Predict the 3D structure of the following.
Amino acid sequence: MNEALPYTFGGIQPVPLNRAKFVILPVPYEATVSFKPGTRFGPESIIFSSRFMELYDEETNSEPWKSGIITLPEIVQEIDSAAKMMKKIGKYAGKIIKKDKFLFTLGGEHSISFPVINEYHKKYPDLKIIHFDAHADLRVEYEGSKSSHASVMRRVSEIGCEIFSFGIRSMSKEESEDLQNLKNVCINFAYKCRNQDLIDKASALPEGNYYISIDIDCFDPSIVPDTGTPEPGGLTWYEITGFLKTFIQNHTVVGADLVELAPSHHYCASSFLAAKLIYKIFAYLTI
Ligand SMILES: [Mn+2]
């Protein structure tokens, strides 16, 4: 029994970078929130909760922590400039990606995904995106910002990545019209992502190198109320983990992020779910 529980993801004792398969990068960035604030507290709440998870995964009979998980210090927010912050995230992420690590970035608002995906795209020109979200995030710009959380998948589409979005149930008329011309974006609306239908879609996706971006608001608000814009009609734990298990078993996944958790307080179920979902992904990647 350890006498001290480290303040790291999973409460795991730090290992040197060369012995770690997984790297957690906390990015508590929040600048372009449109409804309920608080995503800047997402990473610390996920890490706090993760320290109380079981490190044995019963579903896969595995112990993902043995592959080596390290938690990096958080990236300090650049308050004056979104562009400066995006550049800083890209620089940090790029260093880890070059070392062939599986980078798992914790937001913060969804805009932080773009600089990380951009770095992965430099390494994997065929990079494809699995995007779980209530929102399409395809706006050209939002409230005058091209780096808004509501524009992140538009930016990703512009660099040429193929995007497969799941759980979408909120978008503007303009986004819907633009979708006709966005040939590299495939939207799976929430009402078509129910139960086994969603899991069946996982094995049908094309081969390639994938990055998974999870906006926590893809879950139904009855399961995850702690997010900036909770939309009714969301997905369940078993729908999303079922998809991820099947998808990861049949595809190559090189990086991931989880964003938009806006915790009410430290002990809530939303933060614990986020922590456990990340650890599940590590379990699926190691079996
Ligand atoms: Mn969203």
